[in-house]
Each structure stands twice: as structure tokens, then as C-alpha cells.
Amino acid sequence: xxxxxxxxxxxxxxxxxxxxxxxxxxxxxxxxxxxxxxxxxxxxxxxxxxxxxxxxxxxxxxxxxxxxxxxxxxxxxxxxxxxxxxxxxxxxxxxxxxxxxxxxxxxxxxxxxxxxxxxxxxxxxxxxxxxxxxxxxxxxxxxxxxxxxxxxxxxxxxxxxxxxxxxxxxxxxxxxxxxxxxxxxxxx
Length: 188
Description:
It is globular and about 45 Å long. The strands form four sheets. Strands 3-6-7-8-9-10 form a six-stranded mixed beta sheet, sandwiched between helices. The chain has a two-stranded antiparallel ribbon with strand order 1-2. It is built from five helices and twelve strands. It has one domain (39-184): Alpha-Beta Complex (tt1808, chain A). It has helices at 12-16, 40-59, 89-92, 116-129, 177-184, and strands at residues 24-28, 31-35, 63-67, 72-75, 78-80, 84-88, 106-110, 134-139, 144-148, 156-158, 161-164, 173-176. α2 packs across α5. β7, α4 (116-129) and β8 form a beta-alpha-beta unit.
């Protein structure tokens, strides 16, 4: 299903009222984004990333890595469901609803054919404006991760190692991307 292009403005509340029909509904700055349920390799990619991020976050008491579905409201006209995201430690333990998320340390999207425009342009710009310190776009076909930071006009393209340090007082996490992509997409 493609992204509908309408002049109609959507709000987070309207999106939350849509039916649970297997599609993912989001809105960014009033634009409705619709994507079908993810494919299995998309989910394997998320699981693989989560299993590398979660122990690092827990070991250093930095927060929690979480997976969507999760309705994260950046403002009344922006409701996003990052595939994987990290909330800071102090906030993560107080979450009772997704409205309680006020800050993200990291947002991650795994590209799908139906989500490339939304992930690379629409959502990326919105995460940058929200000041999310890092936004990763995982391109399984190219076997690379695009890293975006708030002021970036172009992504940092990473195919060997991704080093992430959300807190300068903790050691950095170094993700060796070769083995990561092999775990997601084993050679046949």
C-alpha cells in the first residue's frame, strides 16, 4: 500500500482512532503515513539489533531499547512508531503509556520498499527537528546503516562499524556491521 497524498491534516488522536487492520498508521506534521505489516526479514533485523542494543543499555544503566508498535507523539500532528527506539533510564522506568515518552536517545527504522520515502525524508526530518540525537536507517539491501544527527544535511553511511555513545561517561557500543548483516541475511 502506498502513501496517500492528501491535503487533509491528520492528528495523533485521529490516527489512534483508525482500525487495527494490519497496517501501520503514523502521521508526521499532519501527513498520514500508511505502511503494511513488515516482512519477516524486517523483523529479524529488528530482533538482531535489539539483542545487541539491549544488553549494552542495561549494563551501563542508560535506558531501555524498545520495539514498536508504540505510539510516540512528538506533537499533536506527529505520531510515529519507530521500529526500534531507546528511551533514557530515568524515563523508561516511569512509562505507563506511550504519551509518557518525552525524549528519545535513538530512533531506528529498517527500510522496506513501502517505507523508504517516509523513513529517509519525512520521519528523518521530524526526528532531527525534535532533537533526537541519533536516527539510524537500516538498509538491508545495501547492507549499511545511515546515521543522521540533528544538524546533518547528509547521512553518515556506515558499512563496517557503527560506534554509538549516548552518554560520554559510559563506554561506547561498537557494532560490527559485517556480522550483524550476516546474522540478518545469511549467505545462501
